Amino acid sequence: MQSQRTFGKEAIKFTGMSKSLILHFNQPGLQTLVQDDGRYGWHHYGVPVSGPMDRFSAYLANWLVGNAIDSACLEITYSGPIIEFSESCQVAWCGADISPTLDGLELPGYQTINVKAGSVLRFAKLEEGCRVYLAVGGTWQLPKILNSRSAIPYTSDTATPSSVIRKGSQLEVKTGNPIQTRTLKKTFFQVGNKARIVTGPEWSKFSPAEQTFFLCQSFQLSPHCNRLGYRLNPELEGYDSRGEMLSSGIVPGTIQISNSGQPVVLMADAQTTGGYPRIANVIKADLDGLGQLKPGDSLTFEPVNLDEARRAWLNKKDKFISLIGLSA
């Protein structure tokens, strides 16, 4: 890789007028999706919230280009796309490091980047994490389905066809006035190899031996992992299937135990009800770190109570507000 250069405001001329930027996807990457904050208020109809797997990385990327933090951005998983920019714009990336380059030069993360018209963004080797979030300053010109532009990749693609990136995709962004360059420390990024949990509704139905195994075992993400959920190995030792259960409500972070004894951590695109026993739930503050795991990574669990889970979430929000407030 060539050496990094400084991307400053002198590298680009902005007119100060709104213009239509087209992102040309010469290659789509392994899985590149448009994600905003998700679909809230539809869970009781069976519609997943979706949104970013690492929500705070997406928030930070949007803030760095002057967008509302819950705006649409690209979620790029494991290997990235090749994107050509038709107009000058501002971009920022946060989250996993997939060795991005702009016109062949290393593209630094966690800062506002000025991009010239005709520039080409590429990704190479995955260095850390699993998902990177690329924000573009402006408003994505994509239709909203149930008040969200987030992709629904595991249903009929007629729902959000433009939000699932394919080779040859072209997305329009209406850009506006540029902002002054912003820079952040990599404060919120983490790979969640250890997740705090609260016990689930069916915790007491597991034997003391099964509970101990679950809390003491170092699990490994199986190859069967995606935005729906992570299947973990090994299975619970000596697990005796509880048989059929009535379907009950589940949310991102719920950990179910399948009939074979395999733990399954449900993620952003998970269904809204399920019939497997719910042994535990990953606390909200630790879900972003889980979003950066990939098959083969390890995962252990640490039990906390509800008060500790609430404090962890409030502390994370307070740190986020302080971070962008101090950096403005």
Keywords for this entry:
328 residues; alpha+beta; Cyclophilin; 2 domains; seven-stranded antiparallel beta sheet; seven-stranded mixed β-barrel; 4 helices; 14% helix
How would you portray this structure in words?
- The protein has four helices and 21 strands.
- By secondary structure, it is α+β, with helices and mostly antiparallel strands.
- The strands form four sheets. A seven-stranded antiparallel sheet has the order 7-6-9-4-1-12-11, with no helix packed on it. It has a seven-stranded mixed barrel with strand order 13-20-17-18-15-14-21. A five-stranded antiparallel sheet has the order 2-3-10-5-8.
- Strand 14 (219-225) and strand 15 (229-233) form a beta hairpin.
- Residues 1-15 have low confidence and may be disordered.
Furnish the topology, listing elements before pairings.
Layout: E1 19-27, E2 31-35, H1 55-64, E3 73-77, E4 82-85, E5 89-97, E6 101-102, E7 105-106, E8 113-115, E9 120-122, E10 128-136, E11 139-140, E12 170-175, E13 194-199, H2 208-216, E14 219-225, E15 229-233, E16 248-249, E17 254-257, E18 263-266, E19 273-274, E20 278-282, H3 287-290, E21 298-303, H4 306-327
Parallel strand pairs: 13-21
Antiparallel strand pairs: 1-4, 1-12, 2-3, 3-10, 4-9, 5-8, 5-10, 6-7, 6-9, 11-12, 13-20, 14-15, 14-21, 15-18, 16-19, 17-18, 17-20
